[in-house]
Amino acid sequence: MSKGKKALGQGKFLSRAVVFGDLLFISGIGPHDPETGKVVEGGIREQTRRVMESMKAILEEAGSSLENVLKCTVFLTDMNNYSEMNEVYGLYFKVPPARTCVQVSKIPRPGENVLVEIDAIAYKPS
After folding, report:
1. This prediction's pTM
2. Which pLDDT tens digit goes with each residue over 15-35?
3. Are strands 98-103 and 69-76 parallel, antiparallel or unpaired?
């Protein structure tokens, strides 16, 4: 790992997040219960809420917050869920960050009904 680069939650293939200077890069977050590792029950609203709560926790662990999110990418398995996802997602930001939203055919968690995944780039105050 290069000087100035720090991984949070480093696994075999990826890190949950990487801090580089005053930027925080958060890997795609799925709607998994942090206690059980299983997808939360319910639909897109519940899954989006779980993703955003996980994002908030990662940001806080890194010394940042939702207010410092600069950019998100939202991956939906069905664009028909866009409005409902947006309603929940919007509750988490006073000033919404830049965002891209795309439909994907599948999110990599075989056998699970994952409807949404979100990654983010945030500012990390010194």
Report:
1. 0.91
2. 889 999 999 999 999 999 989
3. parallel
